[in-house]
Each structure stands twice: as structure tokens, then as C-alpha cells.
């Protein structure tokens, strides 16, 4: 599983135990990112736990770049363990995406540090509120989920288990998608520089974080035709977002 022959020092087999353990760890960090990053559209109170997890996830994704340079791959059914070919394959597939996302991580760290030093000014700045949407670039990592779920799927031995796993995967995808849509919907309302937005018109700005999130999730589910909710867009930006969500639904 860990190749250490000459010219292949510290290369990992793509199906080896160490690589699978790394993918499982990556899945945990990915699920954390999927849940926490969209929540940043809300005014989540600062927490040492969130800060620690933020640094842990960022360090993991930095390390994942080096791990990708050290993991073999299959080409036309043959295992390729040449370091030069691995680097070339990674550069042609995920390297650019990973570098973009890592760069966004550092941009957001700089932005958060600036926000803490000038908290009142930042909250009133439309440009700083809009930059929150830059966090969604980190959702590019969702594309890696299919590769990571293969690690679990390979462990299934029966057809019944594979069917159950497929159903759970579809339900999880729907839950994740509605979570993201709900959080972005709140962000769209908060992006307005005046009082003409759906958050102010419904009085949601004075409610608790839990109530704000559940209201947005209710709205997101209603766009699928499941129930209804008395929330309507009140400006052009919100109306365009609603059209896009309905069209995608």
C-alpha cells in the first residue's frame, strides 16, 4: 500500500488502506465544509471550536494537495506509479481547482481578520457582505465527493446494500442542496444595501439564528413543490435568484 522502491519513494496505492483512510478523513472534512461554509451567510457568533475546525480543515486541504502528488492512478486499467506521470495527471485534473480553493481560504482569512478589526464598519459595508459569496467557491470540493464515496461503495458486498446506499446518497444530496440554497437565500436578502429585502419585510432580522435558518430551509423545500411558505422576493436580485432556483428545481 505504501510503495518505497527506488524511484517510487512514499507513493500511495489508490486503493490502499492508507489512501482509503485519507479519503474517509477527507469526507468528514468535506461534510463539515458543506454544512458550515453556507452558514456563514448568517451572523454566526464567533467560537473557538469553529476557529479550530476552520484551521484544521484548511490544513487538511493543503496537505491533500501533497497527498495527491503522491498517489498513483489507473490509466486504461493499468496502475501508474511514476511520480512524473502522477504529477502530470494531477495537473491536468484537480490541481487548478485545489489551488483556487486554497487561495480562497486565505482570502477569507484575511477578510475575517479585517472584519474583526473594523467590525462596525464592515457590517455596514455592502462590498464586504457581497464578498461572503466568494465562500461558495469552496463548494467546488463537492465535485470530489463522488471519488470519496467510491471508497464506501467498494466495501458493499450485496446488491441490497448497494440499493440502500444509492437511496441514502440521493437523500443526502437533496438535503445538502437544500441546505446550500437556504443559506444562499438568506445571503441574497442580506446583500441588499437598503431596507428593501425579504429579510426586513418579514421581520426575520430580529429573530434568532435557529428561527432564521429553519425559515430559510422551509422556503428552500417549498421550491420543490413540498408545501408553501409566505415569503416573497421584494427586489430584482431576489426575484432573479428565485427564478433560477425554481428553474433548477
Task: Give a structural overview.
Strand 3 (73-75) and strand 4 form a beta hairpin. This protein has helices at residues 17-39, 48-68, 83-92, 95-117, 119-123, 126-130, 145-153, 159-190, 198-202, 209-222, 236-248, and strands at 2-3, 11-12, 73-75, 78-80. The protein starts with a strand and ends with a helix. It contains 11 helices and 4 strands; from the N terminus they run E-E-H-H-E-E-H-H-H-H-H-H-H-H-H. The protein is mainly α. Mean pLDDT is 82; it is low at 119-124. The strands form 2 sheets. A two-stranded antiparallel sheet has the order 1-2. A two-stranded antiparallel ribbon has the order 3-4.
Q: List the total number of helices.
A: 11
Instruction: Give the neighbour order of strands across the main sheet.
Output: 1-2
Helix percentage range: 55-70%
Contiguous runs where pLDDT drops below 50 for at least 5 residues: 119-124
Give average pLDDT, whole number. Answer: 82
- First CA to last CA: what distance? 43 Å
The number of distinct β-strands equals 4
Strand percentage? under 5%
Structural class given helices, strands, pairing?
A: mainly alpha
Main sheet makeup: 2 strands, antiparallel
Which geometry do the CA atoms define? Answer: globular
Q: Could you give the order of the helices and strands?
A: EEHHEEHHHHHHHHH
Radius of gyration: 21 Å
Topology at a glance:
Elements: E1 2-3, E2 11-12, H1 17-39, H2 48-68, E3 73-75, E4 78-80, H3 83-92, H4 95-117, H5 119-123, H6 126-130, H7 145-153, H8 159-190, H9 198-202, H10 209-222, H11 236-248
Antiparallel strand pairs: 1-2, 3-4
Helix pairs in contact: 1-2, 1-7, 1-8, 2-4, 8-10, 8-11
